[in-house]
Design a protein that fits this description.
mainly alpha; single chain
Length: 96
């Protein structure tokens, strides 16, 4: 019975570790989505931008100033105030 527990534990750990690691494509999708939101793109214009963005070569990491500008714009669009805005900005600035 103990011999069965070890393989099951190993399979469980393997599946969990894959769930936590974001792929490069997922990171690219997050970045493109944030840029499209910051640019206030909607509908077909957003679809075209996302398509182009996802096909493009990996961009250089965003500077802290660029992140601040983008996060500030999105928070303004969402009309966030007080603690809600602080929490959003903190989370937004931590993302890649």
């Amino acid at each position: 019975m103990k011999m069965l527990h070890v393989p099951l534990l190993m399979v469980g750990l393997l599946l969990c570790s894959q769930g936590f690691a974001a792929t490069a494509q997922q990171e690219k999708m997050k970045t493109c989505n944030a840029e499209a939101t910051a640019k206030s793109l909607k509908g077909d214009e957003r679809k075209a931008f996302m398509s182009t963005c996802l096909k493009a070569a990996p961009a250089a990491p965003m500077s802290q100033q660029d992140k601040m500008t983008m996060c500030n714009k999105v928070a303004g669009e969402k009309a966030l105030k007080g603690d809600e805005r602080k929490a959003f900005m903190s989370d937004c600035l931590k993302k890649k």
